[in-house]
């Protein structure tokens, strides 16, 4: 497995594969790879002949007070993991290679509407940064398939919309969330958490399960959301949102809507901002939420 850093080298490699008739897949990443990322590589591997992973910490998707500078950069370790998972080529460009006119003068790609709520409200400009870099990567690689994790659910919707609107002939595949044994969704940002916070962070998954149960027993959605946020706050999180939305549009559900829903949470624990989500399965075993002070996360759910 080789690593290339320039568009010219990348295009030359892909041209040779295309000449052989190979189908090409892309897994865009910001590096600091964990089992969640490797599951994307494995999924891509099953669909195409050649897998490319990009490793690029994209400055345009970070806000001025976010963690761009301290975002972990671990290319050597990433390369070893990617090779072990059968990745064929790593594209690890510099900022200058991706933004030849500088980040301030880049052509920008905006995906309206679906970028607006939730993460879009809390992180202005984030999705324009994601859409811009992903469009650049799609243009360079022209993959048949591109794989993204479902943990960044709104990002997946933004990219699906982008591909449909620009009529790019790329199949977008959403890969299931990979969780730690305690339920915490895997994320590069989990390493900012202390051991104690990591334990406590499993509450987010428990609350998502509980939100599903509450919706499925018919509890009004506004109440489910209030309860979920309050449980998180009482456990020491600052909840940016804990909501139930229509899974296709991220709009608030219609009155009585019980199908096609998803619950989404963004919450800060100490200095770390965590996001997670769970499509609501109307047939899932019912687990209820209840509010109590100082109850360990595992006791916050009851089985009916
Ligand atoms: O999900 C990510 O890691 C990033 O947002 C992506 C898609 C690689 C774009 O920089």
Question: Your description of this structure?
Answer:
- The chain has 304 residues and is of the alpha/beta class.
- The protein folds into 2 domains: 2-175, Rossmann fold (3-Layer(aba) Sandwich), CATH 3.40.50.620; 188-303, Pantoate-beta-alanine ligase, C-terminal domain (Pantoate--beta-alanine Ligase, Chain: A,domain 2, 2-Layer Sandwich).
- Helix content is 35%, strand content 20%.
- The chain is built from 10 helices and 11 strands.
- It has helices at 7-19, 35-45, 75-84, 95-98, 119-122, 126-141, 153-165, 195-200, 203-216, 221-234, and strands at residues 2-4, 24-29, 50-55, 89-91, 145-149, 171-175, 238-246, 261-269, 272-279, 287-289, 301-303.
- Strands 1-4-3-2-5-6 form a 6-stranded parallel sheet, with helices on both faces.
- Strand 5 (145-149), helix 7 and strand 6 form a beta-alpha-beta unit.
- Helix 6 crosses helix 7 and helix 9 packs antiparallel against helix 10 (221-234).
- The model has no long low-confidence stretch (mean pLDDT 95).
- Pantoate binds next to strand 2 and helix 6.
- Pantoate is lined by residues 28-30, 58, 61, 130, 133-134, 152, 155.
């Amino acid at each position: 497995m080789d690593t290339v850093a320039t568009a010219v080298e990348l295009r030359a490699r892909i041209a040779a594969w295309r000449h052989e008739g190979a189908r090409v897949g892309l897994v865009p990443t910001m590096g600091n790879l964990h089992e969640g990322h490797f599951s994307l590589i494995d999924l891509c591997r099953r669909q195409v002949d050649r897998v490319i992973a990009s490793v690029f910490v994209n400055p345009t998707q970070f806000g001025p007070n976010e963690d761009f500078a301290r975002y972990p950069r671990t290319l050597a370790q990433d390369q070893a993991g990617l090779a072990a998972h059968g990745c064929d080529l790593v594209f690890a460009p510099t900022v200058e290679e991706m933004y030849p006119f500088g980040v301030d003068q880049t052509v920008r790609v905006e995906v309206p509407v679906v970028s607006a709520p939730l993460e879009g409200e809390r992180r202005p400009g984030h999705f324009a940064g994601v859409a811009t870099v992903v469009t650049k990567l799609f243009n360079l690689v022209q993959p048949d398939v591109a794989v993204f994790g479902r943990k960044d659910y709104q990002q997946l919707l933004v990219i699906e919309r982008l591909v449909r609107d620009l009529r790019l002939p790329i199949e977008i595949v959403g890969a299931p969330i990979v969780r730690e044994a305690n339920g915490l969704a895997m994320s590069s940002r989990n390493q900012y958490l202390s051991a104690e916070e990591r334990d406590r962070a499993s509450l987010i998954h428990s609350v998502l399960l509980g939100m599903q149960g509450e919706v499925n027993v018919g509890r009004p959605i506004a109440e489910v959301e209030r309860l979920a946020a309050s449980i998180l706050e009482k456990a020491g999180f600052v909840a940016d949102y804990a909501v139930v939305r229509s899974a296709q549009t991220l709009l608030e559900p219609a009155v009585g809507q019980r199908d096609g829903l998803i619950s989404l949470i963004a919450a800060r624990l100490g200095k770390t901002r965590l996001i997670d989500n769970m499509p609501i399965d109307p047939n899932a075993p019912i687990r209820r939420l209840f509010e109590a002070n100082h109850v360990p996360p595992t006791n916050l759910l009851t089985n009916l």
